[in-house]
Amino acid sequence: MNDVLAGSCLCGAVGFELLSLPKAVAHCHCRQCQKGHGAAFASYGSVPRSDLRLLRGLESLTGYASSPGVLRQFCAACGASLFWSRSAGEHADWVSVALSALDDAFVPGKQQHIYVESRAPWCGVGL
Ligand SMILES: [Zn+2]
Ligand SMILES: [Zn+2]
Asked: Cα separation of 100 and 75, whole Å?
């Protein structure tokens, strides 16, 4: 397992590297993640903002404020969800990265499912 993890969006326009391993890995079952990802849940891990290096595609990266102070960033060309972050508060220096965008293998030490009370009734994954 590399210390540097590479990632990209579906179309490849946006490419990035993580300079440290994602922490606080969580599979989020909230309705916003379901809608945003078009999936039963979204899997994210967080790195300090300074450890997210955008390699290409800054012009393709666009964002949506899903809540006040919360920015969800995605590729304007393919729609792939990539990052979300807060503009204020104790986690403002961190960015959460959609683990599905990683191209290198990453196995977190621990992980959790959150907002399971809103989990999709059509998803057969047992928790
Ligand atoms: Zn793309
Ligand atoms: Zn969520």
From this structure: 14
Closest CA to 47 of 19, 5, 26: 19
Nearest-angstrom CA–CA distance, 11 and 67 = 27
Q: Find residue 102's DSSP bridge partners.
A: 7
Angle CA 79–54–110, to nearest 5: 80
3 state DSSP class of 16: strand
In this predicted model, what pLDDT tens digit does every residue of 73-90 receive, in sequence order? 999 999 999 999 999 999
- Ligand 1 centre distance from Cα of residue 73 (Å): 11
Q: How many residues does the chain have?
A: 127
Q: Can you give the pTM of this predicted structure?
A: 0.93
Task: Yes or no: say if 47 and 94 are a contact pair by the CB < 8 Å rule.
Answer: yes
Note the ligand closest to the C-alpha atom of 114: 2
Maximum pairwise Cα distance, the chain: 39
What the chain holds in terms of domains, given with CATH numbers, is 5-118 (2.170.150.70)
